[in-house]
Amino acid sequence: MAPRTPASKATAPARTRPRSSETTPEVPATTSGAVAQATTFEDVPLTAEIVAKDVSAWFSGRKVLERVSLTMPAGKVTALIGPSGCGKSTFLRTLNRMHELIPGAEFGGAVFLDGHDIYDPSRRITDARRNIGMVFQKPNPFPAMSIEDNVLSGLVLTGQRVDKSLKEQIVEECLTKAGLWKEVKDRLRQAGGGLSGGQQQRMCIARSLAVRPRVLLMDEPCSALDPTSTRRIEETIGELASEVTIVIVTHNMQQAARVSDQTAFFLAEQGTPGYIVEHGTTEQMFDLPKDPRTLDYVNGRFG
Q1: Does residue 219 lie within any of the structural domains?
Q2: Residue range of the domain that includes 255
Q3: pLDDT in the model for residue 274
Q4: Spatial CB neighbours of 8, under 8 Å, sequence gap ≥ 6
Q5: How far is CA 241 from CA 177, 199, 236, in A?
Q6: Would you tell me how many other CB atoms lie within 10 Å of the CB of residue 284?
Q7: Which residues contact 100 (CB under 8 A, 6 or more apart)?
Q8: CB distance 179 to 239 below 8 Å
Q9: 260 Cβ contact partners less than 8 Å away, ≥ 6 residues apart
């Protein structure tokens, strides 16, 4: 597959279609048209299916992902597991075009949000990132900004204007969904940087929810947290699953088994690009996988 145009060489997010013989067929849309902008916070869009088709990725000409295809069902939690360096986080970043921010990065394939290709040149990159939010490995709040303003910052960055009463509602509802409201409701004007690591991560989840994403990507969101904070984040994931499609990268097999509905096992062997060995329901992947390498990995025999 021919790579798309490197993001670092483009003045705007650019994309080169695969050669005609390799063009990925369009996935039938499961909803009509683009997502309409909600007029009130209650008008939250439905969760969305996200489909990766033959996704490949390169860094400075080195291929790191090999034609990965995966369907992540609407309203479900999909866990991406595998050893370090097998392309899980890179794949996650291609799902909302964050991959393009890395100098020398290239992309091949397609990513469909309810049947609509987010890499289509006619679609704005900001739309992809509003509909497909992301929570990173380490909490990344604006430390000098208040808790309230941290939650609302995504709205500002995406150009969404809301009145004061709606802002208050958004802050309360998003912090409640992130499991943080009761802990911070009396200090919303205090700096977000003063929260503990686990609280900061939940605040970042609330910030992502404020722009009403249809999909939430989580890149090892608990790796830097203590067991108590990890448990609270996992509870939050379970509570959010009915409202937003979640894709999570984790190295914690127990966590993957606890929070996900389906699991995909990535592997990169002897310097080859990462690929999916197999995927299926989490129960199947942990109890009766088809590939012996999957069984060895989930049981801690390598990785």
Answers
A1: yes
A2: 48-140+214-298
A3: 97
A4: 102, 103, 104, 105
A5: 11, 20, 9
A6: 15
A7: 7, 13, 107, 125
A8: yes
A9: 77, 78, 79, 248, 282
CATH code of 97's domain: 3.40.50.300
State how far the Cα of 193 lies from the Cα of 205, in Å rounded to an integer. 15
- Alpha-carbon distance of 285 to 295, in angstroms, equals 8
Q: Into how many domains does the chain fold?
A: 1
Residue 148 in contact with residue 189, Cβ under 8 Å?
yes
Secondary element (H or E) of residue 174:
helix 164-177
**What pLDDT does 156 receive?**
81
Q: Does residue 129 fall inside a structural domain? A: yes
Q: Which two tokens stand for residue 145?
A: 């900004």
Beta bridge partners of 57: 65, 107
pTM: 0.83
Q: What is the DSSP string of 117-131?
A: ETT-TTS-HHHHHHH
pLDDT in the model for residue 27: 39
Digit-coded pLDDT (tens) for 190-217: 999 999 999 999 999 999 999 899 999 9
Greatest CA separation found in the chain?
60
